[in-house]
Amino acid sequence: MAMSAVARDTVFALRRQIAKIEGTLPERLQAPALGVPANARSDMTLVRRGLAVASADAFLHTGIDRLDTALGGGVPRAALSEIHGLETRDAGAVAGFALSLVSLILKQKPGLPILWVGTAEIFHEAGLPYARGLSALFGIEPEQLLFSEAPKLLDALWIAEEAARMTAFAAVILEIRGSPQRLDLTATRRLHARAQNAGRPVLLLRQAGEADPTAAPVRLIVSAAPSASRETVAGPLAGSIGRPAFKVDIGKSRTALPGQFTLEWNPNEHAFAERTENSVAVVPASARGADPAPASGAVLAFPAVAAPAAISPTACGQPSRQQHPAHRGPRRAG
Q1: Is residue 17 classed exposed, middle or buried when 0-12, 13-18 and 19+ CB atoms within 10 A define those classes?
Q2: What whole-number distance in Å separates Cα of residue 184 and Cα of residue 64?
Q3: Which of 39-53, 56-70, 281-295 has the lowest mean pLDDT?
């Protein structure tokens, strides 16, 4: 774990140096002030791929200031963003986090549908969202979420590219399992370019795959976090499970700033909240059985005692060997 942390810090340091050369640090994203000489303005503006200074509405704000600052303003609205799950068991957390972002998107673009593209393999492995949960947790009506199941990855990429160029969708979600070779820089560059031209976000969900290079400017590594107890007027309700929580790590961002966050999703307000205290998951006791037994006390060592004397079979009411007919035969030798 120590080596991986050192390697990650080294990678982020290198990315920050590259960002400094390209002019993508947060202090260079500010609009140039009036009256500043032209030679000084070139050091303050963003010079990358012919883009000017990014405007405030170019990002989807998560509502967590610390996370938005680390991402350079938030999740890009018109770009390819990668949400990565390292293991198969993280598929539910990755999907839930993506639906949370979609819920934030629909606040600005209500009524528009969302297209979820994937292969038959990923839908069979990770399943589909529960229709009633969409409305209760995220405020998404079931008829707004459209699914496209493709037989092959090549077909799923083609569908996602064609859908990304359309402005009729509020967002396009592409879910991929593993690290297929066809999901390379060329394929992700096409998705990113379509999203930029249409002004719509494309969310790339990576399930149980390696952190391969992609054209997505933002990569968030998401896993499930323990849920805290439910809050009541009298305080936390013991034995209850509260709001869904996500552990979010920044794997790649425009500012090359690392960060780790624990976010809770508020299903009533459809907003994120950052958890700062260290909470422990509370598992309720079984409703059918009794409460678990208390922990055992101190363990004492007793001295060994002699074995009790043999008890005669006749004392227990059992017939002796001479009386029992089964013992009258000859004993087998050897």
Answers
A1: exposed
A2: 31
A3: 39-53
The predicted pLDDT at position 322 comes to 53
Provide the pLDDT confidence category of residue 215 given band limits of 50, 70 and 90.
very high
Between CA 176 and CA 120 the distance in angstroms is 10
CA distance 272 to 74: 13
Residue where the block lists tokens 């976000």: 201
Which backbone phi and psi does 114 adopt, to 5 degrees? -125, 135
What are the tokens at 39?
Answer: 């030679």
In the chain, the N- to C-terminal Cα span, in Å, equals 61
Query: Which parts of the chain fold into alpha helices (H)?
Result: 2-22, 38-41, 65-70, 91-108, 120-126, 131-138, 153-164, 185-198
Nearest to 204 by CA among 138, 256, 251: 251
For residue 263, the cross-strand partners are 246, 274
| Residue 84, token pair as written in the block | 């990565």
| Closest by CA position to 117, among listed 128, 106, 101 | 128
CA-CA distance, 203 to 79, in Å (whole number)? 9
Kindly report, residue by residue over 35-44, the tens digit of the pLDDT. 444 444 333 3
Rounded Cα gap, residues 254 and 41, in angstroms:
20
Reported in sequence order, the residue ranges of 125-259 that DSSP labels E, i.e. its strands, are 145-150, 171-177, 202-207, 218-224, 230-232, 235-237, 245-252
C-alpha distances (whole Å) from 313 to each of 166, 317, 318, 325, 329 are 91, 7, 5, 15, 19
Alpha-carbon gap, residue 178 to 7, rounded angstroms:
23
Residue 288: is it exposed, middle or buried by C-beta count within 10 angstroms (0-12/13-18/19+)?
A: exposed
Predicted confidence band of residue 56 (pLDDT cuts 50, 70, 90): low
The model's pTM: 0.69
